[in-house]
Amino acid sequence: MQRYSFAALARRALGRHRGWTPLWRKAAPKPRYHVVIIGGGGHGLATAYYLAKEHGIRDVAVLEKGAIGLGNTGRNTTIIRSNYLWDESARIYEHSLKLWEGLSRELNFNLMLSQRGVLNLAHTLADVREGVRRVNANRLNGIDAEWLEPEAVKRFCPILSIDRAARYPVLGATLQRRGGVARHDAVAWGYARAADAQGVDIVENCEVTAIRTTGGRVGEIETSRGTIFADKLAICAAGHSSVLAAMAGVRLPLQSHPLQALVSEPVKPVLDCVVMSNTVHVYVSQSDKGELVMGAGIDAFNSYAQRGSFPIIEAQMAAALELFPLFSKLKMLRSWAGIVDVSPDASPIVGKLPIDGLYLNGGWGTGGFKATPGAGHLFAHTIAHDAPHPLAAPFALDRFTSGALVDEHGAAAVAH
């Protein structure tokens, strides 16, 4: 076996790599496309991929204002689960989870899916009642769900404190064993490569500055790289959904907020599941690099800032140490924020907008990453057929006038 000195290895690691094939073409925008998708995150790229693969629509462009993977897709905490309360939500997230389970194989790209289990802790009697209710609802929808008493929670996650004298004692937890985490940037790269291979143009550094309509129909799209005409225009821009829709004269019932996260310095493996707590507002997992990944609830104020703020960090650290006292000596490595768009019922908007040829996949709040493959799959169907997929039909915009809301504030409370 050939051996290299440290200096030789360093030269190879830091030297200029040659002969590497880019994962996707650096496409220049064409003057016209059948479908233009605004947003090169996971949802936009997944939509483009399924449009081409499932529906044979390849005259598609994905416009991303920056670089692929640097938006919300690269700024979340990577948690995947489907244990939502209402039938409509459970079905759409379970559809997504089933796609996750075969996605690395389908894309031929290692997404590092780790189904390590997700615990949702209960700290009050109200939490216990809600947790048991959700377990029963999940089982009725064919979703794996268990209720664990405190001792069983401790066996599943030995480093978690279940001290009954704690300010918020652990009274039990729901468990979805199929839940877990995946590598966020790999998801964007995998879908980008697969969409590109189907003939989709992925246009980076292309910011949309105006959307023009004629006779109630979408037409011109002004961008930083010129004007593009589209027969159909799909918005998949997470926290900026309402900004883009307003360019076409559509006002959306969405509020954009920062959602913060942070990581600790890396340590040896100590946490092999995901732990979430709505009551103390924190959720924790451990990355493959050893960092403890922690998040909290959204900031109360509206903002498009992608940075953390000290009050949220302080509160989530206090919550984390309540659950995991052994983390008390760890140092924080870095913090950041993504932008989430939240609807009045904490459920997404997926479907047609009041302008002909204009579609929206947004309003996912804190549930966007876990929905990536499912949302893209259903949204592609909606665009291709100009009619909603049955699983997406309950999430149309008109539910806010009909009153048929899908209230998921409880299942989505903390985030993810």
Detailed description of the structure:
The protein is globular. It is built from 10 helices and 18 strands. Helices cover 29% and strands 24% of the residues. It starts with 5 loop residues before the first helix and ends in a 14-residue tail after the last helix. It is an alpha/beta fold. Strand 14 (282-286) and strand 15 (292-298) form a beta hairpin. It folds into 2 domains: 25-78 and 185-253 and 345-402, FAD/NAD(P)-binding domain (3-Layer(bba) Sandwich), CATH 3.50.50.60; 115-180 and 256-342, D-Amino Acid Oxidase, Chain A, domain 2 (2-Layer Sandwich), CATH 3.30.9.10. Helix 2 runs parallel beside helix 6 (184-197) and helix 2 (42-55) packs across helix 9. The strands form 3 sheets. Strands 1, 2, 8, 9, 10, 11, 17 and 18 form an 8-stranded mixed β-sheet that branches. It has an 8-stranded mixed β-sheet with strand order 5-6-4-13-14-15-12-16. A two-stranded antiparallel ribbon has the order 3-7. It has helices at residues 6-14, 42-55, 87-107, 125-140, 150-156, 184-197, 241-247, 310-323, 372-385, 399-402; strands at residues 32-38, 60-63, 79-80, 118-122, 146-148, 172-176, 180-181, 201-203, 208-214, 217-223, 226-235, 255-264, 274-277, 282-286, 292-298, 332-342, 349-352, 358-362.
